[in-house]
Amino acid sequence: MAGEKKGLVLLDFWVSPFAQRCRIALAEKGLACESLEQELLGDKSDLLLGSNPVHKKVPVLLHDGRAVCESLALLQ
Question: What does the DSSP assignment read for 1-63?
Fold first, then answer.
C-alpha cells in the first residue's frame, strides 16, 4: 500500500489505560515505536477505522502495515 508506515506504529489516546499498558510493554521490551495520537471523542481517523473496523478503538499496533488490535493481544 502506498504511503504505508513501516516498523512499529501505535495508534493510541493519551488517557486510555489500555494504550498506556501497551506503551509500557513496548518500553520494557526496548522496542522503538512511533505513537500516533488518535481523536476518540470526535471524528475518528481513517487510519484507525481501517485498522480496527469492528471496534474502532485504540490501542492498535501496526507492524509493517499489519494491524494487531486489543491490548492483551499486543502484550504477547
Answer: -TT---SEEEEE-TT-HHHHHHHHHHHHTT---EEEE---SSPPPHHHHHHSTTT--S-EEEE
Residue 14 lies in a domain: yes
Residue type, 37: E
* Distance in angstroms between the alpha carbons of the first and the last residue of the chain: 26
Task: Indicate which CATH number applies to the domain containing 50.
Answer: 3.40.30.10
Question: How many domains does the chain divide into?
Answer: 1
Tell me whether residue 13 is in a domain: yes
| Predicted confidence pLDDT, tens digits, the chain (76 residues) | 444 567 899 999 999 999 999 999 999 999 999 999 998 888 999 999 999 999 999 999 999 989 999 999 988 8
Distance CA(10)–CA(20), nearest Å, equals 11
